[in-house]
Amino acid sequence: NFLFIRLYIASLWLITIDLGGTLSTWASDWTFTGSKYVMEILFSIFPAFVFYYFCVRNQINERTIITWSWIFFVVVAACYFFRRSVLQTQLENYVVARDGFTNNSAYIVLAFIPMIPYLSRRNMTQFLAFGLCLFMIFMGMKRGAILISLICLLFVLLFYFRESSNTKKIEIFVITIFLVYVGYRIFDYYYLNNAYFQSRLLNTTQGDVNGRDEIYIMIQNYLNQHSTVFNILLGKGAYGSLKAIGQFAHNDWLELFINQGMLGLIIYFIFYVRLFKTLMRYKNGSIAWLSLLLVFTILFTRTFFSMSYGEIDIWLSLALSYNTYKLLCQNEYINNIA
Fold first, then answer.
1. Alpha-carbon separation of residue 16 from 4, 133, 234, 262 (angstroms)
2. At residue 108, does pLDDT exceed 90?
3. What mean pLDDT value characterizes the chain?
């Protein structure tokens, strides 16, 4: 997996062109360069290499992960509520914002979910932490983050129900019923009392995807009118989507195809194939496997509606590195015994 990440980074250096200058977007004049593009992705991906190195040196172990899980939990909650208070202050003059607003920090909370299994060996503690994260994500009103978090919750419940004893299964079943009831009550309260939530829900049921459908049409028109063999194979380079349609594609696969062409797209696809094969090959019912499953779910699902390869949070990088190393070591130990 890390080999393909390294290949992906190398391809960026080879085919990224230094565009330079400013581009007037819908938000503001924004300075962009090829070097900045590469650095953003390096800072997003490189921590995984660092964490993996320290795992190999045995300077990151399960005890370290447990300690940092709690530290990150506090940091994530603090960042989320700080961002929420800032947004609330900025939007206090808007009537709709008094009921609610979209908080992108929900994705920061979502990225922490793979660390939850390490918070405690007690299922109750883990599910309480999961419930708090779900509540923060729900308040963030990011529909993609809500969807992914619910998928993660389903995987966690199925994992513990399958791997637990009969007594524990009863406990997990009760916890599931409790979470469903609390979730329903929160949903019902927001649905009846929150105008912003009502509008978001109505837009979702009507197929509103925040203008992404219009973006996809713009990309299709651009590709139909301006595609060349070079652009198809190697793309337009750094921030190619901004030059092509004036904004990001909000989809990893489309973004990479415009920026790095088929080369970048294939390397990115191989990374997820390798990560999925790792999950299937080393499926052993361990916490490391569950955590890596959550990492894969979050990263892969985000690729379809929110550019993720340049925004990997440090706690998600830690979970990716440690769990990959842990599974490889467990498999090697089993093979040595055999």
1. 18, 37, 9, 14
2. yes
3. 80
Map the chain to HEC letters.
CHHHHHHHHHHHHHHCCCCCCEEECCCCEEECCHHHHHHHHHHHHHHHHHHHHHHHCCCCCHHHHHHHHHHHHHHHHHHHHHHHHHHHHHCCCCHHHHHCCCCCCHHHHHHHHHHHHHCCCCHHHHHHHHHHHHHHHHHHCCHHHHHHHHHHHHHHHHHHHHHCCHHHHHHHHHHHHHHHHHHHHHHHHHHHHCHHHHHHHHHHHCCCCCCHHHHHHHHHHHHHHHCCHHHHHHCCCCCHHHHHHCCCCCCHHHHHHHHHHHHHHHHHHHHHHHHHHHHHHCCCCCHHHHHHHHHHHHHHHHCCCCCCCCCCCHHHHHHHHHHHHHHHHHHHHHHHHC
Q: Express each pLDDT in 254-263 by its tens digit.
A: 888 888 888 8
Q: What is the pTM of this model?
A: 0.85
Name beta bridge partners: 23.
30
Q: What is the pLDDT of residue 21?
A: 45
Which of left, alpha, beta for 249 (phi over 0: left; psi -120 to 50: alpha)?
alpha
> How far, in Å, CA of 162 to CA of 167, rounded?
12
